[in-house]
Design the sequence.
């Protein structure tokens, strides 16, 4: 039993949840298509009447059913339709249900418009416009402005009517830029209404364009309304255009017959009666009086049935003219009296309506001014709110930017101070290291200079010893050998002397070194008739290689001074040239030239062996070239 009760309780809770979900979903579904608040369902009239009196139906649903009942019953009983629409409006207003109130006001205004109570219809539509503007329901403005424009056209104010219709079309274009199945109904009705407005102003070309656009929509979407009105409008345009050619009148008849067929399938007797009147007038233009009589008589019966006095008056007048044209003057007189009676009644009603229309126009203008002021105030408030929000955002952005700059500046300042401290500490260490390095370099320079000085002294001492030993040698050959060794020592000592005197201890300028070496040899070896010419480029060479280089020059020049010149006359030319990273050394004399055995071919010569060995040490090449007068020795090093 407990399980059964639990199962039943769960089922009841589930059903209650589903009912609540349905009630909550109905307003959400209302957003799908306006002006209908709920999905369109063609309920029968008796079903709608039971639903609006059912106490279990939610109030929001009852608003919808009352509005649908007013729309359904409006084709047969406009008074009851107005009653149901007014009841739906009051219930929606009591509930605060804005969408339901807009729906009921739209139905109530349409009903008043069908009843011919244009003053009441305008007031209802204006109330709906103000409500739509204030609540932001832009889509409802499309049918509201369209119906206000149609009322203005009916009441004889085509300019105002055209303005309302253009405003409706502008709102529709803003909400639905492309024609889709959801908005095809509004586009079709807008095109038809705009065509009617241009037709009332006798702008037949513009009216024809919009009527054809409405028919094109009906061809693309079979559910598009307004096809009958578009055909009727095209028929009236061809009927009104001048001149009345047979082709135009036939076209007018085609479109009027099409409109009549569509209206007959929808069982709207009032629209059929109006279309029949237009068709009877067309037959009058075509002088088809028999057809005119039958169509006008049919229109008169329908007008009496639906209670439309203007249609009844026009139909009676057409029947009278058709009867007179057919020769039935007594019948024509009777229908003419009916038409005059209806016309007098309409004149009285028209006077009262004219006064009401003047009042309505005044109220409409006042209401439009209030709407304009309200719109301006709303836009001004919105602009002020936007400006205030903009300033707030600018202030927030400014404060955020300043805060960010402050944070970044603080971080950068801290880092800068840290970097400066680190840089100062590094500079101190670098200064100490530089001082230590400078002190060490100074000590090393002093040490190197001392070494160079001692080397010079030692080489000089050795040269003096060799010179002393030469003086004690009785053999001239041995003395000659000692002179050569002493010259070699002098060349090496001169390199160290230049290093000792120079700022750079690592390299020697060969032009200065060679000039001093050549001058020393010339003063020691040359006879009075021998001259020395030099052309020396400032070539740098490290100390070790400079020593080898000096020994090579010493050997070649000494050999030239000793063996080249026979008559103690001649010239010795020494050249030193840059060649890329290397050098070119040329030593030329104008003496007696080489012997037949050659210069380099004497392998037992110590000088020649020394020159060849030192040339290899310098990674250079030596060549001895006989000249027409004298000999030329070339030493080249290329990198």
Sequence:
């Amino acid at each position: 039993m407990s399980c059964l009760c639990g199962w039943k309780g769960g089922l009841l809770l589930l059903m209650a949840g589903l009912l609540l979900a349905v009630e909550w979903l109905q307003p959400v579904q209302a957003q799908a298509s306006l002006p209908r608040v709920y999905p369109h369902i063609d309920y029968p009239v008796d079903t709608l009447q039971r639903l609006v009196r059912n106490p279990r139906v939610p109030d929001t649903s009852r608003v919808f059913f009352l509005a649908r009942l007013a729309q359904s019953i409006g084709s047969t009983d406009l008074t009851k339709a107005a009653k149901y629409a007014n009841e739906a409006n009051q219930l929606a207003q009591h509930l605060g249900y804005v969408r339901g109130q807009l729906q009921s006001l739209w139905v109530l205004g349409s009903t008043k418009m069908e009843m011919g109570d244009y003053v009441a219809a305008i007031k209802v539509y204006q109330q709906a416009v103000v409500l739509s503007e204030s609540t932001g329901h832009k889509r409802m403005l499309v049918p509201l402005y369209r119906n206000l424009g149609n009322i203005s056209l009916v009441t004889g104010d085509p300019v105002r009517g055209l303005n309302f219709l253009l405003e409706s079309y502008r709102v529709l274009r803003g909400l639905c830029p492309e024609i889709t199945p959801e908005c095809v109904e509004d586009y079709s009705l807008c095109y038809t209404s705009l065509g009617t407005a241009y037709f009332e102003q006798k702008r037949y070309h513009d009216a024809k364009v919009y009527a054809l656009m409405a028919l094109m929509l009906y061809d693309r979407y079979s559910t598009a309304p307004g096809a009958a009105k578009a055909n009727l409008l095209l028929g009236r345009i061809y009927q009104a255009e001048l001149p009345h050619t047979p082709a135009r009148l036939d076209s007018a008849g085609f479109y009027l017959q099409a409109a009549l067929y569509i209206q007959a399938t929808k069982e709207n007797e009032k629209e059929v009666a109006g279309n029949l009147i237009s068709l009877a007038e067309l037959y009058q233009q075509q002088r088809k009086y028999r057809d005119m009589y039958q169509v006008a008589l049919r229109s008169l019966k329908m007008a009496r049935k639906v209670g439309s006095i203007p249609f009844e008056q026009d139909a009676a007048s057409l029947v009278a003219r058709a009867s007179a044209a057919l020769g039935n003057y007594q019948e024509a007189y009777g229908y003419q009296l009916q038409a005059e009676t209806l016309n007098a009644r309409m004149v009285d009603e028209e006077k009262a309506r004219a006064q009401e229309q003047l009042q309505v126009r005044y109220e409409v203008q006042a209401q439009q001014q209030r709407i304009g002021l309200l719109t301006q105030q709303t836009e001004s408030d919105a602009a002020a709110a936007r400006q205030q929000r903009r300033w707030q955002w600018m202030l927030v952005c400014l404060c955020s930017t300043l805060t960010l700059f402050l944070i970044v500046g603080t971080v950068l300042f801290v880092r800068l101070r840290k970097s400066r401290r680190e840089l100062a500490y590094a500079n101190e260490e670098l200064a100490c290291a530089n001082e230590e390095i400078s002190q060490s370099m100074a000590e090393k320079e002093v040490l190197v200079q001392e070494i160079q000085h001692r080397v010079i002294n030692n080489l000089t001492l050795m040269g003096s010893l060799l010179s002393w030993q030469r003086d004690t040698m009785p053999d001239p050959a041995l003395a000659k050998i000692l002179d050569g060794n002493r010259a070699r020592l002098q060349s090496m000592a001169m390199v160290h002397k230049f290093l000792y005197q120079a700022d750079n201890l690592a390299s020697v300028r060969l032009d200065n070194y060679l000039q001093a070496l050549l001058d020393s040899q010339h003063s020691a070896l040359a006879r009075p008739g021998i001259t020395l010419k030099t052309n020396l480029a400032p070539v740098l060479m490290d100390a070790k290689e400079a020593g080898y280089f000096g020994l090579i020059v010493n050997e070649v020049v000494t050999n030239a001074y000793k063996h080249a010149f026979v008559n103690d006359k001649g010239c010795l030319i020494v050249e030193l040239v840059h060649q890329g990273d290397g050098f070119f050394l040329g030593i030329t004399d104008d003496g007696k030239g080489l012997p037949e055995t050659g210069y380099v071919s004497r392998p037992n010569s110590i000088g020649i062996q020394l020159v060849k060995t030192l040339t290899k040490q310098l990674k250079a090449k030596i060549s001895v070239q006989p000249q027409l007068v004298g000999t030329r020795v070339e030493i080249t090093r290329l990198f």
Remarks:
- Confidence is low (pLDDT under 50) at residues 1-40.
- Residues 549 and 614 are 8 Å apart (CA to CA).
- Strands lie at 507-509, 529-536, 540-542, 569-579, 582-589, 621-626, 631-637.
